[in-house]
Amino acid sequence: MTPAPRVALLGATGFVGSAVLRELAARPVRIRAVSRRPARIPDGARADVEVRAADLTEPGEMAAAVADADVVVLATLYSAATSTWRIEDGDSSAERVNVGLARDLVDALAARGAGPLPKVVFTGAASQVGPTDKEVLDGTEEDRPAGEYDRQKLAAERLLLDASARGVLRGTSLRLPTVFGYGPGSTARDRGIVSAMTRRALAGDPITMWHDGSVRRDLLYVEDLARAVVAGVDHTDALAGRHWLLGTGEGRPLGPVFQQVAVLVSDRTGKPPVPVVSVEPPAHAEAGDFASVTIDASAFRAATGWAPTTPFPEALRRTVAHLADEAERERRAPGGRP
């Protein structure tokens, strides 16, 4: 019998990677879940899951992680303690992860020699395009990244797509919008804006915005994102050689989104909704923080058949419920606040 395909999932305990692991684990495949700390095998997994704890920045670890893999999903991400994406110019540790691991992956796959080309799916970011006058992005924009994070993600993407063009691998990049939320079996912390403001509301603090609330974001629920990444795995041959944008096609004003969060938290706690207020932006704010973004993902949808299926109110409700449960557990833990 032909063995089931082996998928090396790099970054398997991260916010995106752990959701992809749950989605892949429902399939009859072999998964090598690679991360610094051991990944948790999802409940009811059909897949044969090998858990590998490794620091991929160490010599030889990348080659071992992707040995005999038919598919590689590169979902690793360097982040500072306070943010999922902001990094300082010249941060060599960030470059080593965000760019260096892509370089190591290309080198490891190039060393294989003859045989079927491995498929590689990279999780990029819609923000890689940089500042633009377009409010609706469709993937045809010229990339002019402004921040260090976006420059590093673009550099990694180009390494992989160049390797695809040279016949080292069959690679594609999926550029993610603002991803948020929790679903059944969630194991990784979401430090994005929606969950951050939900945590503030649960603590009884005002929800704060660096603008008047009219700034729009294309908010993609994490479970829908995981299905998109797996659709990318299924259709890598059709997607290879270029980047594709993911999104819902709807830019939601953040003010009303945060008002919904305040009401959902109030329903859960029985307390009045916390206020949603505008505050002065901090010194580290960037131009992109004040730009509205909507994603036209019609090209990816046409190529794969994927579409987001979770209604936004339900995704928001699940997110608030999960974080409220988390806060309750913390209060009940020894030493927790009353």
Automatic annotation (TrEMBL):
Instruction: Please name the InterPro entries in this protein's record.
Output: Epimerase_deHydtase, Lipid_A_modif_metabolic_enz, NAD(P)-bd_dom_sf
Q: Where is the composition biased (Basic and acidic residues)?
A: 132-149
The ranges of region (Disordered) come to 130-149
Q: Where are the transmembrane segments?
A: none
Domain (NAD-dependent epimerase/dehydratase) ranges:
9-247
Residues annotated as signal peptide: none
Tell me one Pfam family matched here. Answer: Epimerase
Q: What is this protein called?
A: Oxidoreductase
The organism named in the record is Streptomyces kanasensis
